Amino acid sequence: MCMALPAISERKYQRKAPKFEALGKSELVHGSLDNPGHVRHAVKIIKSGGIAVFEVWGVFGIWGRADRLATVERMFAVKDETGLKKTLSAMMSSQHFLPLIDKDSVHPDIKHLVKDHHSLREHSGAFFFVGANIRKEAAKKAPTPLISYDEEGNAFMYNLDPYGHDYMSNLIEQIGIPWVGVMSLNTHDKPSIHDYQVASEFCRAKGIPLILRDPSHRREKFIGSFAQVDIRKKAAVRDGKFPVSFINKTLGTELYTGQTKKAQYPQTLSENLKMLLTADMGPAEVRRICIDYVTGRLEIADIEKIILAQTVKA
What we know:
Oligomer: single chain
Order of helices and strands: EHEEHEHHEHEEHEHEEEHHHH
């Protein structure tokens, strides 16, 4: 059953200096996403309107309730972005995100992406942020910090389905609220933070009370943010840890890259898994193999055997 999406106040969202105590140095609790006690503590912080930092495959992000304006103000304050016209990205399952999407606005070449929530999650889950126009009725219920508007007044929103990353999925399920907002851990003019010690010092200096590490096995050089795809324009807005070339393979089409923001860190998958780009396999399998390679469940030799077996079968 889909989670009901509650309406929030239509009070205009204006970013300004937060009215909480100065973000000075404070005690920082360290933990892990595989520790039930640590997760319960994180859930309590988020649900009560606090903020916390979590690692996901080599990148740290700030999480908080997007339906609490004071929380959002604090999230932007720790990034030194007060006064800037930016929005948060959402973190929800495709089952909850799909009903918000204006399907008529999706580019014809990738309409299959929004056929149902299974298709959406199998293509994009823990793989890339999906940017989509939001139905007018849904936009009225969504927290303003998650929504941006284009020149024609259409509401737009980014979401990352955690499907494919077990610890992230569990955390979202445990939090149990629809409007979780996320943003990268960094100041607005710096790359996203991937080093644990740097992330810890950032949290301590900014008064963030909790940082949880991702215990998932991850190949050392697999770091950086997820890509962003605008499904209205069939465009890659930002390249990421899973390169656009692999996203093209899962979507079965070439995304427009004329204005794509480059990835902040080297994309090791581009060379290591290039054989996937010419392999005859379905989108869900390409995505799954990429994730399984990143997390160490598959090695290059394993992937070559899979491709060979499919070639012989064909």
